[in-house]
Structures are given as structure tokens and as C-alpha cells.
């Protein structure tokens, strides 16, 4: 039985697929993953704060900026009858965390993304304890409510399987909840001044300006708009043409074009808006689609939407409306190469459409990154009079609902080194209950004066507002600007909010409010028909699936690469005939077995979208 468990936990999953990766010991002994001893449910009677606890924690992002006895620390210690002992090791100090693990010690509450072990391995080696489901129910009801809202997958993140791979009521650690499952990474951004010059202006009553008041970008206030208006697919194609042929910058030269496109072997979030016009996602190979012509559930490379995308992309590229980057930046390059070249190309001011990084629109800080992003990269370096508009998605040729883009995260809950809080092995249920009580209060009463002070500090000392308090952008003061005795720890609150932060910078505050209120993610995101991972398939099915996939995927990839490259090079014959022959070869090479044995299997249930609204 133990051998079976270890095989389940040690599934070696391919790098290109976002499966959970377990680290396992080569020994059969050691601390068991799941004890069979009966557990008595904790009941705290009388004053829940009566017992005093000393709780060890890490220093957060920067170990050299932590000052013992900051105002947030003292407020929490007094209210919850605890004493926080902060270990001055940064969460991001790989060397320090490795030394900590080597010494055989771990804090009571740990966020240790750069530690050498992940949560399953930490438990196996005896560093941590499990978190029982009933502790969430009794002492962190906010968290348990989020689990219920986002079932079924929320109960499977960081869940510790039994010997047969079935889920239990025990967890390796506390999974993060992040609100970015309610939004998407890149947003369509266009030159509004160019649109007006080529006859595609947007009515003023559909435009909502972004107000900027900061010293750096305030002079560009009103030069970025948001809109819910979406151009039809054919109109958008004509806009790409006009940006290329109609001299939208008015300089009398043929030196502008619609946008940048990549070779179709480049599959990332930066291409999802283009692919999404045809109902297919570039960035995630785990998406499976229901192919209407056959009724089969298939991966992207056998889906008719992918064929439609290739035909569209090649046409737009051949016409010159969308252009690739210089040779060497197109495919299989290090991220820095293509990324730097993309941003440099956009900054020239000769491109009309951008798949913009939404979280950096008009962001005044982090200049080494944000100053390179549109629209501010163009304002700061090329054309300070440029005007832009951001809109929800690129429309496809089909009905609304069949096109869009990918949500940033598939689910509200997360796991892995960067999305898990661990609980030290010596932490009692009573101490864990106290930590859960602190976290529960923080998320059920976030707007109280107490928690606003704990989380953000005091206005005038730690931050200032760009406008109306709690309804505009918050500008945080640097550590050096805050008196030493007022410096806050800032990392006691956990990461469990499914709502947008109330303290974004000025532009982001406006942009995300509009995004959420207009329900862009609800209306303009593509969801998989089925989704490949351990949570949707289960350990036993995915193990069998990976065994078969490993036998056939190499030959399948040869066919996929050949068809894609010939399509991009324009060397296909009759497109309909070539596609049908390609699909037939894929099925004969092994896709048929994957489809019949797994993708179409009724026990592999369709994906369930989390509670976005």
C-alpha cells in the first residue's frame, strides 16, 4: 500500500503542464502522510483568549527592515494575548531558508517559497503538521465559506490523499486564496487618437477617462480611457489594416502598423487575446475543448478553433497588418529577448494595438518595469500627446460567449511553495486556533478602524490618498520616510482575500473597479470544457493517462509541429483537405486512444468555473 501511495505522490508530470509536483523521499520509512489515529475535535470553552501563546513567524519580504515591536505587531499582541517572535529571515532568502531547514527548525507559521522542500516533503520530513478540515470550520469560518463557494476544487488544494489517492479531511498547509481568478492578465489597448483618424472613433458616452494626479503621470490625466465597447471581428481586422495603410499618425510616411504577432509555437498569456478570438487559449495546454464536428473532447491542436486562428494569423501577417519581431525574437527565445524587444517595439509609437499588462497601466512606481509598458512608455519616450483606450476583448467571428481570453488563475485557491502557509509540527490545535481566529477576524471585519490600522497604518505617517479616502489610490511611503518606531511588520494578515485590494495605486484602483463592475471576466473569458490536472481527473486516472501520453506524445508533437510550421510558412495545399488529413494522422498516431480512454470518459467530469461574481 505504501508503494502505491509513493507512486501516486511521485508522479513525474511534464514541465509544460501545470500539475501538482510532489517531492518524495526515496525511503519507505519516515513520518507517515496520514495518521489513522482517531482525532478529538478541539472545543475551546470560556474566554477564547485566556491562554497565552508565543508564536514564531518569519520576517517577511525584507529581513533588514523589520523592527521589533511595530505598531501592528503590538496591536495584535494586545488584542489576541500572544507574543510574536519574528525570525529575521526573509521569505525570499533561499540560502537562509535552506540553513533554517538544515538546522532542523521551522517557524510556527511559515511562508517559505524559496525553501528547499515543498509542503508534502516538509510534512514527510517531520517539519510540519497537517491542518484538519474541522479547524477551518470552527476557527476560520471565513476560509471554510470560501471553500464551499468554490467547490469542488477548493477542497483539493494542498489536500493530503490517502493510500488510494482519495482526498481526506487533512491538508499539507493553508492554501492561499487570490482574487486574480476574477481577472485576466492582458487587456486590449489601442491608440484612440488613431482610431478617430481612421474613422473608428468611439462615442464619448461610452468612454470613461482614467484620472491621474501623481507627480509623474498626472500631466497625462484623461489620455487613457476605458470602454465596454467592442469592435466586431471584421471591423477590428479593418482597424488593423487602417493602422497600417491609412497613415494614422499623419506624418505622411508608411511607417505604422496594427500590432505585433508571434510564431504560433509561442504560446503564452501575451497571445491569448489573439487566439481567444476563435475560442482557443494559447497559454494553457491543460485546456480541452468540445470539437463540434466530431463530438470528441480534444486538446487545442485538434480543435477547429486552432485551425481558424492559424488561417487568420497567417493572413494578417501576410498583409503586413500584424508583424513579427526581428528574427531571433520570434520563437523559443529566452523571455528577456522577446519581451524586451516587444516592449521596445511598442515604445516606438509606430504600433496601434497592444496586448497590455493590465496591472501596469499608468502605474507610476516600479519604473524599471512599469515605465517600459504602454501607455506610459509612449508618453514618456515617444509621443506625450498619444491617447489610448482599453476594452474587454478582441471579438471573434462567432457569437459572444465563444471568444474571449483566459482568466489569470483557474481557481480561487492555490498551492505549491509560493501559495502555501505551513504550520510547524509542534504547533498545538489551541495555538493554531488562535492564529485562525486572528486571520478570520481580519477577513470578516476588514473595514474596521482596528484592521485598517493594522494592515495599512495611519494616514499621514504610512500613506496618503490621491483623492477621497478608501475610494482613490493609496500612495505608500517608503520605509525610509517612516519614523523607525512607526515601521510596521505588515505580514500578519495572510493571503486569503477573493476581493480586489482596496489600496491599489490610483490608475489601478479606477481600472479594476470598472473591470469588476462591468463583469469583464464573467462575460469575456473562455473556460475549458474539461481541464487536465489531478483535481479534475483524480490521482489514479491521471497516472494512467500520463503513462499512455508518454508513449504517444513524441509522435503527436512531430505532426503538430509539422502542420503548424507549414501553415505559418504558407505551404499547405487545400486547407480543408490538409486539416482533415492532419486530424486523421493525429488519431492514428495515438490521439484516438487518449480521446476514447480519457478525454471522453464520463468519469472525467467537465470543468466547473469558480464563483466569479
Describe what this molecule looks like in 3D.
- With 613 residues, this protein is of the alpha+beta class.
- The protein folds into three domains: 2-180 and 411-499, D-Maltodextrin-Binding Protein, domain 2 (3-Layer(aba) Sandwich); 184-390, D-Maltodextrin-Binding Protein, domain 2; 530-599, no CATH class.
- Helix content is 35%, strand content 10%.
- It has helices spanning 2-9, 71-80, 94-102, 119-124, 133-139, 141-149, 192-197, 233-245, 272-276, 304-319, 335-347, 367-370, 376-381, 429-444, 449-456, 506-517, 520-523, 534-537, 539-569, 575-599; strands spanning 53-58, 82-87, 109-110, 131-132, 170-171, 174-175, 186-191, 208-209, 224-226, 259-260, 287-290, 297-298, 322-323, 353-357, 388-390, 420-423, 463-465, 474-476, 530-531.
- It has a five-stranded mixed sheet.
- A hairpin with an 8-residue loop joins β17 and β18 (474-476).
- The chain starts with a helix and ends in a 14-residue tail after the last helix.
Q: How are the SSEs placed, and which strands pair?
A:
Blueprint: H1 2-9, E1 53-58, H2 71-80, E2 82-87, H3 94-102, E3 109-110, H4 119-124, E4 131-132, H5 133-139, H6 141-149, E5 170-171, E6 174-175, E7 186-191, H7 192-197, E8 208-209, E9 224-226, H8 233-245, E10 259-260, H9 272-276, E11 287-290, E12 297-298, H10 304-319, E13 322-323, H11 335-347, E14 353-357, H12 367-370, H13 376-381, E15 388-390, E16 420-423, H14 429-444, H15 449-456, E17 463-465, E18 474-476, H16 506-517, H17 520-523, E19 530-531, H18 534-537, H19 539-569, H20 575-599
Parallel strand pairs: 1-2, 9-15, 10-13
Antiparallel strand pairs: 3-16, 4-5, 6-16, 7-14, 7-15, 8-9, 11-12, 11-19, 17-18
Helix pairs in contact: 2-15, 5-6, 5-14, 10-19, 19-20
Amino acid at each position: 500500500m505504501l508503494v502505491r501511495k509513493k507512486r501516486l505522490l511521485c508522479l513525474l508530470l511534464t514541465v509544460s503542464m501545470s500539475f501538482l509536483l510532489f517531492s518524495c523521499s526515496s525511503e519507505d520509512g519516515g513520518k507517515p502522510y496520514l495518521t489513522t489515529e482517531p482525532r478529538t475535535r478541539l472545543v475551546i470553552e470560556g474566554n477564547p483568549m485566556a491562554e497565552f501563546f508565543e508564536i514564531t513567524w518569519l520576517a517577511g519580504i525584507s529581513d533588514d527592515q523589520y523592527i521589533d515591536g511595530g505598531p501592528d505587531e503590538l496591536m495584535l499582541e494586545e488584542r489576541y494575548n500572544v507574543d510574536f517572535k519574528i525570525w529575521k529571515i526573509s521569505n525570499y532568502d533561499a540560502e537562509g531558508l535552506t540553513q533554517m531547514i538544515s538546522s532542523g527548525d521551522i517557524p510556527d507559521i511559515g511562508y517559505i517559497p524559496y525553501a528547499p522542500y515543498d509542503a508534502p516533503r516538509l510534512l514527510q520530513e517531520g517539519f510540519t503538521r497537517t491542518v484538519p478540515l474541522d479547524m477551518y470550520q470552527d476557527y476560520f469560518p471565513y476560509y471554510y465559506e470560501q471553500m464551499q463557494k468554490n467547490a469542488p476544487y477548493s477542497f483539493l488544494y494542498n489536500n493530503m490523499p490517502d493510500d488510494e489517492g482519495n482526498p481526506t479531511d487533512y491538508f499539507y498547509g493553508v492554501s492561499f486564496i487570490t482574487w486574480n481568478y476574477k481577472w485576466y492578465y492582458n487587456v486590449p489597448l489601442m491608440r484612440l487618437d488613431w482610431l478617430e483618424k481612421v474613422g473608428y472613433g468611439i462615442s464619448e458616452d461610452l468612454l470613461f477617462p482614467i484620472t491621474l494626479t501623481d507627480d509623474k503621470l498626472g500631466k497625462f490625466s484623461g489620455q487613457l480611457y476605458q470602454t465596454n465597447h467592442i469592435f466586431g471581428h471584421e471591423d477590428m481586422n479593418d482597424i488593423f489594416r487602417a493602422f497600417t495603410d491609412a497613415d494614422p499618425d499623419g506624418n505622411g510616411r508608411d511607417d505604422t502598423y496594427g500590432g505585433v504577432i508571434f510564431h504560433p509555437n509561442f504560446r503564452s498569456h501575451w497571445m491569448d487575446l489573439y487566439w481567444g478570438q476563435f475560442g482557443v487559449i494559447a497559454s494553457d495546454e491543460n485546456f480541452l475543448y468540445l470539437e463540434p464536428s466530431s463530438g470528441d473532447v480534444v486538446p487545442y491542436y485538434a480543435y477547429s478553433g486552432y485551425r481558424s486562428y492559424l488561417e487568420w494569423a497567417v493572413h494578417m501577417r501576410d498583409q503586413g497588418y500584424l508583424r513579427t519581431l526581428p528574427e531571433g525574437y520570434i520563437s523559443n527565445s529566452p523571455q528577456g529577448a522577446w519581451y524586451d524587444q516587444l516592449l521596445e517595439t511598442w515604445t516606438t509609437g509606430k504600433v496601434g494595438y497592444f496586448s497590455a499588462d493590465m496591472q501596469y497601466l499608468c502605474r507610476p512606481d516600479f519604473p524599471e518595469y512599469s515605465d517600459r509598458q504602454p501607455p506610459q512608455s509612449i508618453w514618456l519616450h515617444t509621443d506625450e500627446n498619444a491617447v489610448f483606450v482599453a476594452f474587454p476583448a478582441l471579438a471573434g467571428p462567432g457569437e459572444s460567449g465563444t471568444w474571449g481570453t483566459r482568466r489569470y488563475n483557474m481557481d480561487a485557491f492555490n498551492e505549491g511553495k509560493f501559495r502555501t502557509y505551513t504550520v510547524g509540527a509542534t504547533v498545538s490545535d489551541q495555538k493554531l486556533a488562535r492564529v485562525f481566529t486572528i486571520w478570520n477576524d481580519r477577513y470578516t471585519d476588514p473595514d474596521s478602524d482596528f484592521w485598517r490600522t493594522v494592515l495599512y497604518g495611519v494616514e499621514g505617517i504610512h500613506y496618503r490618498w490621491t483623492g477621497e479616502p478608501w475610494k482613490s489610490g493609496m500612495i505608500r511611503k517608503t520605509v525610509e520616510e517612516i519614523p523607525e518606531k512607526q515601521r510596521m511588520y505588515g505580514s500578519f494578515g495572510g493571503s486569503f482575500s477573493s476581493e480586489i485590494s482596496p489600496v491599489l495605486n490610483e490608475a489601478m484602483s479606477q481600472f479594476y473597479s470598472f473591470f469588476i463592475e462591468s463583469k469583464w471576466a464573467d462575460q469575456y473569458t473562455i473556460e475549458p470544457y474539461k481541464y487536465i490536472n489531478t483535481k479534475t481527473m483524480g490521482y489514479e486516472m491521471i497516472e494512467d493517462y500520463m503513462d499512455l501520453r508518454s508513449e504517444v506524445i513524441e509522435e503527436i508533437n512531430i505532426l503538430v509541429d509539422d502542420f503548424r510550421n507549414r501553415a505559418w510558412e504558407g505551404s499547405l495545399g487545400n486547407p480543408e483537405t490538409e486539416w482533415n488529413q492532419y486530424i486523421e494522422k493525429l488519431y492514428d498516431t495515438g490521439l484516438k486512444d487518449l480521446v476514447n480512454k480519457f478525454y471522453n470518459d464520463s468519469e472525467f467530469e467537465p470543468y466547473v468555473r469558480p464563483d466569479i461574481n
